Amino acid sequence: MKTPANLPDDSLAPRATQRSLPMSLLRAREAIMSHFRPMLDAHGVNEQQWRVIRVLAESGQLDASEVAERANILAPSLTRMIRTMTDRGLILKSRDEGDGRRVMLQIAPAGMDLLRRAGPDSARIYAGLEARFGKDRVEDLVNLLDELSKLKAE
Amino acid sequence: MKTPANLPDDSLAPRATQRSLPMSLLRAREAIMSHFRPMLDAHGVNEQQWRVIRVLAESGQLDASEVAERANILAPSLTRMIRTMTDRGLILKSRDEGDGRRVMLQIAPAGMDLLRRAGPDSARIYAGLEARFGKDRVEDLVNLLDELSKLKAE
DNA sequence: TGCTTATAATTAACATGTGAAGTAATATGA
DNA sequence: TCATATTACTTCACATGTTAATTATAAGCA
Fold first, then answer.
1. Residue among B16, B3, B8, B7 nearest A122 (CA)
2. Under DSSP, is residue A100 helix (H, G, I), strand (E, B) or coil?
3. What is the pLDDT of residue A19?
4. Which nucleotide is nearest to B71 (CA to C1')?
5. What does the domain layout of chain A look like in residue ranges?
6. Average pLDDT of B34-45?
7. Residue B14 has what pLDDT?
8. How far does the CA of A101 sit from the C1' of D30, in Å?
9. How far apart are the C-alpha atoms of B67 and B54, rounded to whole Å?
10. Is the CB of B76 less than 7 A from some atom of nucleic acid strand D?
11. d(CA B99, C1' C29) / Å
12. In chain B, what residues touch A133 (CB-CB under 8 Å)?
């Protein structure tokens, strides 16, 4: 299989933008989030805050680095979010005894309330998407995505 | 299939964060971009600028709305980017004759240079990922993602 | 112990993301 | 034709994304 001499060799050209993995991932995420955003908005949180709350609800007390990693939020962003979220009573911040560098985070009462109110809405939206797209295809997709995530460079 | 009375019903609980479509999409995109970021950085552009350049290279002159849509960039962000990118000679901005509202954009010489220099690097990185993950699995994945994108709300 | 290195957060500076409001040009229809 | 609505873009305000530099604490080691 050889490129004909009279046609330009595009093997080193960038892929068509609408058919590349980075763009497809971006568009797909945007499409999915368009279903959740109105609900989150109604509950007064943004995507990132919602991720932090869910991570803490899932795992109890964690240090900031762990939260950042699990919620896919960079440390400087999380630092800023900690202030606004503690001010709103969504999370609690404390120092780790034994390691004065670490900031420990846990969900606070208002965060629990939020989770109780928004959690079912979120689950319903997810279930709806799953039903429309096919539960098995969602499963396949998540598996492929998780495999892909393992290719992360350092 | 009924939830036992002595166990909490979690059918309306949020999905485990590490196994949800939004988070998996986010992590996968981050993993993929970690391979491209150093290259883009070496060429002095960020992800968004690179997307704009590629969209314009692919489709010639487009109005700002089209660019925003195809590159998945919000209009206010694009407005800001237009200034920095025209200042750097990467793109050209002009008014549409016939519709004074529209801003027409096209790639400029420095943008072409950038594309010629970074394009092959980008294609090589993509080919490497494709080889590691499996060309057929990438194809399957992109197909699933594009299907998913069709579920976009409103 | 004291010096050095490594780690965890924070801060700073500038970029884009996001929703809402504003402006200019065009389209619509009585 | 002219008031009104719509469209395309811009501006604003505040949020997070991103990299680099800084601070405080801990760990490693001669």
1. B16
2. coil
3. 87
4. C16
5. 39-118
6. 95
7. 74
8. 26
9. 10
10. yes
11. 21
12. 147-148, 151
Q: What is the pLDDT of residues B76-104, one digit of tens each?
A: 999 999 999 999 999 999 999 999 999 99
Cβ A117 to strand D below 7 Å: no
Q: What pLDDT band is residue B145 in, cutting at 50, 70 and 90?
A: very high
Structure tokens at A76: 């400087």
> Minimal CA–CA distance to B68: which of B82, B78, B54?
B78
Nearest CA in chain A to B150: A31
- Mean pLDDT across B51-56: 97
Give A90→chain B minimum CA distance, Å: 17
CATH of domain B36-115: 1.10.10.10
End-to-end CA distance of chain B: 35
Share of chain B above pLDDT 90, in %: 85
Whether B121 sits with its Cβ under 7 A from any strand D atom: the answer reads no
Query: Residue A100: is it exposed, middle or buried by C-beta count within 10 angstroms (0-12/13-18/19+)?
Result: exposed
Q: How far apart are CA B103 and CA B79, in angstroms?
A: 10
Contact B144, B76 (CB under 8 A): no
Q: Which one, of A59, A55, A56, A43, lies nearest residue A107 by Cα?
A: A56
Reduced to 3 states (helix: H, G, I; strand: E, B; else coil), residue B8 is coil
Strand D contacted by B64 CB (< 7 A): yes
Of A54, A70, A132, nearest to B14 by CB-CB distance is A54
Per CATH, the number for A39-118 is 1.10.10.10
Q: Which residue has the tokens 């495999």?
A: A147
Question: Mean pLDDT, consecutive 10-residue segments, chain A of 154 residues?
Answer: 54 77 96 96 96 96 97 98 97 95 97 95 95 94 94 79
Does residue B1 carry a pLDDT above 50?
Answer: no
pLDDT at position B17: 85
